[in-house]
Structures are given as C-alpha cells and as structure tokens.
Write a structure and sequence with these properties.
By secondary structure, this protein is α+β, with helices and mostly antiparallel strands. The chain is built from 13 helices and 10 strands. The structure holds glutamine.
Length: 310
C-alpha cells in the first residue's frame, strides 16, 4: 500500500530546500503580506483519514479555488441553464483577461476564469442579498469540509474590493452585454468575499472530497452534489483550472486541479484522494510555484495521474 504520510513528509522536506519560491501576489495588497516561506500539504483519503505535512493547519486565502464550490452551488440551483451564460472551453488566456469577452458577446469561456466566476456569483445572487449569497457559499464549503470554523478574511475582501478595478471592468462589460442580472457592485460584493474565504490545507482537502468521491464527503455520507456534476467539475478543473497554465499542469501532474492567487491548489485524484497544497509564491501564470512542484512529485510517487502510468 502507498504510504501517503511518508510521501507527504518527503515532499515537504524537498520543498523546504527550494530557494526559488516564486512571487507572492501583491495586486491584492493584503495578500502581499503573507510569508513566502510557508508550505503545507494535506490529503483527504477515501477511508476518511486526513494526512498532512508542513503548515497544513494554517488558514490562507483560497481565492480562485472558491470558484469550484460556487459553481457546484450554482449548478445545483440553476442546473444546465448555467451553460447559456458561461462556456466550458479553456481560455488559453490569463485568469483576469478581458480580451475574449467582447468577441464572445459577454459570455466568458469558462466558469473558472474571473469573468466566468463573476457570472456564477450573479447566478447565486438571484433572489438574495449579497450577504445571504455569501452565506450560502460559506455554508456549502463548511458542509463539504464538515467544519463550521471556516470563515472569510474580511481584510482580504476589503483589500480586493478597494483595488479590484479589473474585475469591475469585466463585470461592467458583462452587464452591458446583458449577461449580469444585478448591479455589478452587488455581484462583485459576492465574488470578492467568496474569494476571501480562508481555509487551511486540511480544511480544503476535506472540502474537495465531494469532487474526489462522487459528491460524498465520505463513506455513507449524503451526496452534496450529484456524481455527474462532480465528474464534470473535475473535467473543467483539468482543462481550465490553471488558466493558461492548464495544459502544462495536465502534462506534469495529470490531475484535475484548481489554483488560486493565494498560493493554494486543490487537486483531485478521483476515487483516491482530495489533496490541498499551499505555498504563497506564484509562477509566471499566477499558479503556486512550489504547490505545482509538490503535486508533480505526488503524482510521480503515487501513480495517481488520471492518464495512468507513473
Ligand atoms: N480574487 C482574485 C481575482 O479576482 C482571484 C484570482 C485568482 O485566484 N486567480 O483577481
């Protein structure tokens, strides 16, 4: 049997030796204050164990990793009608790109880039206040992680709201194109706060179990999403979860994954484990540099790549 605890410890030791740790995101000023030396990794296994190494119990800003949970909830609410407002194709462009929106009449390429996630926030806002939409997202994440202690880092949310001009441009353009139903400020109030959810690697790995285990948090639990939705969200994570780095991530790691500019990555080994890794320094396309390296090592040592082989 693969000894995951030993593998995670080896990964953590190897990453501690790395001197080139990438660049911490500072376009959201509050994120720029995070210590680049941090590294944590956790795996939530099919048998219910959560195994971890490094700074795996320290909360960090999950940022765009939140997009897969918000999408799960929106698909539960609106079903396949969501796909009239957001596509399912990789963008091949940066996460905050504006360029495709005009050519595509305000329909974002997929729900995991910023424009697509803002549409998802707008779907979740229907019939609700921004506060209750945020509460719905937070409740969903708490249920998935089975942890009521998960919350929002309001300093990060305020910092992003104060400086989020590019996301405002995306939202206003989509409103003009008829693809947002609400005042862009209200939709962004949901989006900025969902991105500011703070979780540790252990909490995030537990929340990701719904994607690894066909909607379930563990054996015998009720499903939070249908198996078909879990499968499809995994497909989107594989093709779009790392923006213009998605091809490289599939090539090197071979697992559905979702990254965030806080330095977190959620990676799904279907049927085997949900893995969360955190290292705040980012590579050139805005994905955690050491997080990606750690997952490459994990995939090699476990043989968990969805493409087989080792
Ligand atoms: N909140 C961030 C933004 O909108 C999320 C981006 C990310 O994590 N890639 O810029």
């Amino acid at each position: 049997m693969t000894d995951i605890a030993a593998i995670l410890t080896r990964i953590e030791r190897a990453m501690a030796q790395e001197t080139e740790r990438g660049r911490v995101a500072d376009y959201i000023p509050e994120l720029g204050t995070v210590d680049p030396a941090r590294f944590g990794i956790a795996a939530a296994m099919a048998d219910g164990r959560v195994i971890s190494a490094g700074d795996a119990t320290l909360p960090f800003s999950i940022q765009s990793v939140s997009k897969v949970f918000a999408l799960s909830l929106a698909l539960g609410r609106l079903g396949d009608a969501c796909w009239a407002r957001v596509g399912r194709e990789p963008s091949g462009d940066p996460f905050n790109s504006i360029v495709q929106l005009e050519a595509d009449d305000g329909i974002p390429r997929n729900p995991l880039i910023n424009a697509g996630a803002i549409v998802v926030s707008d779907i979740l806002l229907a019939g609700r206040t921004p506060e209750s939409a945020v509460t719905a997202i937070l409740d969903f994440v708490r249920r998935a992680a089975e942890d009521e202690g998960i919350g929002i880092d309001t300093a990060v949310a305020t910092s992003e709201s104060d400086t989020g001009f590019r996301n405002r441009a995306l939202a206003h353009f989509m409103r003009a194109a008829g693809n947002l139903d609400h005042d862009p400020e209200e939709t962004l109030a949901v989006y900025f706060r969902q991105c500011a959810i703070a979780m540790s690697c252990e909490q995030l790995a537990r929340a990701g179990r719904i994607f690894a285990f066909a909607g379930h948090t563990g054996p015998g639990s009720d499903a939070l999403i249908t198996p078909a939705r879990a499968r499809r969200i995994n497909a989107l994570m594989l093709t779009c979860g790392h923006y213009d780095g998605s091809g490289e991530f599939a090539f090197e790691v071979g697992l559905p994954g979702k990254s965030g500019v806080g330095g977190g990555i959620l990676a799904i080994a279907p049927g085997k484990a949900s893995v969360a890794v955190w290292s705040p320094g980012l590579n050139a396309v805005g994905n955690s540099r050491l997080g990606t390296m750690a997952l490459e090592m994990l995939a090699r040592e476990t043989g968990w790549s969805v493409f087989g082989g080792v």
